[in-house]
Amino acid sequence: MRLPPSLILLAAAGASARASSDKPRPRGVGPEFAKFYQDTDTFTCISNPAIQIPFSAVNDDFCDCPDGSDEPGTAACAHLSRNSPLTVAERPGNDGLDLVLALPGFYCKNKGHRPSYVPFNRINDGICDYEQCCDGSDEWARVGGTKCEDRCKEIGKQWRKQEEKRQKSMTAALKKKKDLLVDAGRQQKEIENHIVLLGSEIKGAEAKVKGLESSLKTVEEQERKVVRTSGKGKGKVNALAGIAKGRVNELRDALVEVRQQRDEARSRLKELEEVLSKFKVEYNPNFNDEGVKRAVRSWEDYAARGLGEVSNSARDRDLDEIAKADDESSGVNWEHWEKEEDGCVESDLIYKIAAYLPPSLVSFLEDKILSVRSILEIGGILSKPEEDSTTESKAVTEARNALKSGEDELKDLKNKLRDQTADLEKDYGHGGIFRALKGQCISQDAGEYTYEHCFLESTKQNQRKGGGFMSMGKFVRIGSTTVEETNEAGEIISVEKVALEYERGQSCWNGPSRSTKVVLECGEENEILKTAEDEKCVYSMLVTTPAVCAGGEDDNVAPRSKDEL
Ligand code: MAN
Question: Where is each MRH domain found (predicted)?
């Protein structure tokens, strides 16, 4: 079975201890492959066990095995593919064998540093590959006099120092990642609580609106009753005129009655005063009657204060005038007020004329007037008639306004609930971690621009020497992208990375609207490492953040995001 190179590399560490006690391995063989080189007489090709060759053919600088396993220490089989097997048609001679290397490369022991594999084509090529082979063993043949000294001590020391730094940084990054997860979880909980609160606020607001609706109904009904009771006019003035007319008539009737009673009382008083003054003249003072004498004295006192009031003709004329009905006097012209319209509508005119015209002509004229009026309204020459504004009482207006603000409040709460619920549904990445970074901005100076990235919001290109900025896109989704990286063995490999995608930025002259792909890499800080314009107005940013470092997740810390559920 053929192992993929990555698995072979993983197997290397575990196999090294076990193999160390076995017999010496041929040049270039890593400890994990030592078992294939135990037989000192015959060598069996690793991936093609049917092919056996004498052991002396191992590392004889001639490629015998189709998988190159007989040449672990030379470049004789370097022409074979490392990763992708060739198709049958591509194979030289089409022999039906699988021409893929069985070994990951030439094994460098690198004592004092870490062992590593160097690709076979770099063996004895006259170049010291210190990155993979710090002990210089890849140039063992000293081709053209090349002698590579062993630098593993210093390279190893430097590497350990860097590795220690890297580990420290990774520990710090994971701590930051945990903090982000805690923060994201807290924010999500806050939204959940807010949704619950909004739910009860909405219920309260709905009840309030219902109450306000019925208040408005009641007030409107009361208003209608007043108008109905007055029964005549179409508006408030008519209603008021009806009520006032009734009241004035009541008062007038009362005045007439009271005047009648006054006149009766006045004539009786006059009669009485005449009786008493005759009595005073005719009584006999010599007749010693104490009761009569007292009555005469009282009469004299009464008469001294002046006798009963004589009629005032001027006032009586006024009262006569008031007592007359309005249509007989110069009083209020009720007919005018009762027929008064609250708003003057031009179309009234046509209805007055209409009485003298044939109905077909009336409807033709009606249509014409309406269309001319609407043209004049659209042109702003005539103002639109305000709907019932003049007929509505203050109480109705207040009740209507209260209902309107209650409805607005309810609408506002429902919008908030919709937004918060939608936010909860959004993808904020693994553990919802990007919720904690949303809106955080980082920037990088590059040439004439300062590039800006605000997590999950936007990317911008700001002119460094003043001037404005260019939107490079608004956040649309969390996606992924494949990038090529060099691994420790110096090979180029494809790695999948989280990418934040920003689209619909400012339009590019003669091109698309600007867009940016922000590729994320694990790092202690949120930092833009590089910004590039890959195509005209299509940008990419390489950004480090602790949010994408592997590990640090603790299921108790953060709630799961929607895509994990
Ligand atoms: C500006 C910048 C550039 C872009 C050009 C396109 O100068 O946004 O990045 O290439 O416009 O016209």
Answer: 439-551
